[in-house]
């Protein structure tokens, strides 16, 4: 790679690294914004206007998005892109596309209600599997409607240093690394088989403050009936950039 191309790429990598830190200061946001502007300007000179796609333009809004919604790793556009794909699949032909989307979307939104009224658990599993054919729900433990344990339970407890403070009896719990809930697959840090990184989530702390954290593992407790929990490592984020 020629030096000028490498330098241009390095600028974008530096900017994204700043916006992906667990703690981001206002100066980090300003520096990242300057770097992304420089990257976009040099990109046009190096590759030409023909390659100045909308994705390149969106980089100019990246620092502002982090200021509004938080670190890059706690937000994603994949959900919206997935929804766009599902909306496109609701149309069959070019005539009356709006009515097709409206009618088919109404059917899809009512399906969970009808599934919840089914008396046969096998029928529920089958209907829910149709919405996500990539997961074999037949081998998953069902927690509730639309929520499943994915994969096997573990009795070795990879996060024992955290769990022993919460559950005195280690024989009363089982851990698992993946959870499917509301058409999303959450992967904990203990999942080692795939290349996918662990999931992050946003939750309310005991003092009613919204914080972000990384999912370390999932737990099934059997002390007083089955109870399912998640062990989350809280992220240390600077509050100033995210205030509105």
Structural commentary:
This is Metalloreductase STEAP2. It comes from Frankliniella fusca. The protein is an alpha+beta fold and 244 residues long. Helix content is 42%, strand content 18%. The protein contains eight helices and eight strands, in the order αααααααββαββββββ. The strands form two sheets. The protein has a four-stranded antiparallel sheet, with no helix packed on it. Strands 3, 6, 7 and 8 form a four-stranded antiparallel sheet that branches. A hairpin with a 2-residue loop joins strand 1 and strand 2. Helix 2 packs antiparallel against helix 4. It is flat and about 65 Å long. The C terminus is likely disordered.
Key traits:
42% helix, 244 residues, 4-stranded antiparallel sheet, single chain, alpha+beta, 8 helices
Mean pLDDT across all residues, rounded? 81
Total helical segments:
8
By DSSP, the count of extended strands is 8
H/E series, N to C?
HHHHHHHEEHEEEEEE
- What does the main sheet amount to? 4 strands, antiparallel
**Beta-strand content bin:** 15-25%
SS class: alpha+beta
Helix fraction, binned, reads: 40-55%
Compute the separation of the termini in Å.
42 Å
Q: Would you identify the regions where 5 or more consecutive residues have pLDDT less than 50?
A: 238-244
Shape: flat
SSE topology sketch:
Layout: H1 3-19, H2 26-47, H3 54-58, H4 62-69, H5 78-89, H6 97-116, H7 121-131, E1 141-144, E2 147-150, H8 160-166, E3 173-176, E4 178-181, E5 184-187, E6 200-204, E7 210-221, E8 227-234
Antiparallel strand pairs: 1-2, 2-4, 3-7, 4-5, 6-7, 7-8
């Amino acid at each position: 790679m020629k030096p000028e191309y490498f330098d241009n790429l390095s600028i974008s990598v530096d900017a994204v690294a700043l916006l992906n830190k667990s703690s981001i200061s206002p100066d980090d946001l300003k520096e990242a914004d300057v770097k992304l502007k420089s990257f976009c300007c040099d990109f046009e000179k190096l590759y030409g206007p023909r390659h100045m796609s909308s994705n390149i333009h969106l980089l100019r809004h990246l620092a502002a998005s982090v200021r509004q919604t938080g670190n890059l790793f706690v937000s994603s556009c994949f959900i919206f892109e997935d929804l766009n794909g599902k909306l496109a699949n609701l149309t069959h032909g070019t005539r009356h596309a709006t009515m097709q989307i409206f009618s088919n979307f109404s059917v899809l939104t009512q399906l969970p209600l009808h599934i919840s009224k089914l008396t046969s658990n096998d029928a529920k599993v089958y209907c829910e599997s149709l919405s996500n054919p990539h997961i074999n729900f037949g081998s998953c433990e069902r927690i509730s409607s639309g929520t499943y344990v994915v994969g096997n339970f573990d009795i070795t407890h990879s996060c024992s240093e955290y769990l022993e403070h919460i559950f005195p009896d280690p024989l009363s719990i089982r851990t698992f690394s993946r959870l499917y809930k509301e058409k999303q697959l959450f992967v904990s840090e203990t999942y080692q088989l795939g290349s996918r990184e662990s999931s992050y989530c946003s939750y309310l702390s005991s003092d009613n403050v919204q914080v972000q954290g990384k999912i370390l593992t999932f737990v099934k407790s059997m002390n007083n009936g089955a109870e399912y929990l998640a062990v989350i490592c809280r992220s240390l984020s600077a509050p100033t950039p995210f205030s509105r």
